[in-house]
Write the C-alpha cells for this entry.
Amino acid sequence: MNFVAIRGNRFTLEGRGLRLKGVNYSDPDSPWLWFQKWSPQATRRGLAEAAALGVNCVRMWVPHSSEEVDPNGPGPFALIDEFLHAAELRDIRCYVGLRWQHKWTERGSLDDQANLEFLGALLEMLKDDPRVVAWDLMNEADHVSHECWQWNMDPPEAERRLLWLKRMCDVVKEADPVHPLSMGATFSYSYWQPDGPLSLESMVDVVDFHYYRANYRTTTVAEEIRAVREHTDKPILVGEFGFSSCPKCTIRGEPEHSEELQAAMYDEYLSDCESGNVAGLLPWVLTDYREEFKSGESAFGLLRVDYTPKPAGALYASKFRVSDHPEAPVPGSMPVRPVAVG
C-alpha cells in the first residue's frame, strides 16, 4: 500500500489524482463503542460491505486512552492496528479521527500531559504508516455548546479554542510531517470566522466541513463548496453529510423522511460534490443502528442493520467513482512519499 499525498487541491496516489470515496465507519451493534466491544468478525463484515460500495477510505475513531477499551482484551494500539490491517486487506485507507480525554487543556497541566502522552504514542505508531490517509484532529470543535453552535458568537471562547487547536496541530505536524491534517467543522464558515490571522484554514492541509440540512437551512452543498473555494485553494473534503430515512426525523416543512427521500437527497448531494470537484467525501454513516440505539442519527446508514443496501447505498455505489478523477499535475506543499508496502 502506497502513501497518499497532496498536490494543489487534490489527493494523489503514485502521481495520479485520487478522490477519497469514503464513509464514516460504524457497527450496528455498537456504533459508538466498537473498540470497547471489539468484534473482529463485525469489523471484517462492515469493511467488506464498505468496499462493495466502492469505498477507498473510512473515517475511524481511535480511543482516547486505554480506559476506552476492554481491560481484559488487547490494548488500544493493538486494536487500532488490527482495524487498519482489516481495512488494508480491502484496499481501504483510514482517515484517523482523534478523540481527546481532556479538551482545551492548559499547557503543562496534568490533563494536558495525559493528552500528549497518549497522542505521542499514537503518532509514533502511525507517523510512517501508509494505511493512514490523514489525521482528523478533532470533530466539530466549533460546537461551543448546545445553545451556541458557532464560535464567532463567543469571541473569547473562540480564541481559547483556536489557540489550543493550533498547539495540537503543531504537535501532530512536528511528529508527522507526512500525513495531511484536517479537522471536521460543523460549519464551513468556521474555517475563516472569526476573521483574523489565527483561523482553522491556516492550520490545516485539507478543509473538512460537515453538511446537514438542519444546520444549513438556506444553502445547498454546492453553494457551501463554492463559498469554501472562495477562501482556500486547499483540498476540500465533505467529511460528514447525510440524511435520515426515519420518518421520526422529519423537520417541519420537509416531506416525510423515507428511504426514497434519503436516496433523492443523496442524489442531490453527490451531484453537488461532483460538480464542485471536491477531493473527497465521507457520508454519515455506513450502517443504521439497532433498535436500542434509536436516536436522530439511527437511520442515517447507507446500509440497513442487516447490511443490505438502502436505495441511497445503491446510489452511492454507482456515483462519485474514484477512477473518474483526472490527473493532478499541480505541484503542492505535501511531499510525495516513496513507494512503501504496508
About this structure: Residues 95 and 133 are 5 Å apart (CA to CA).
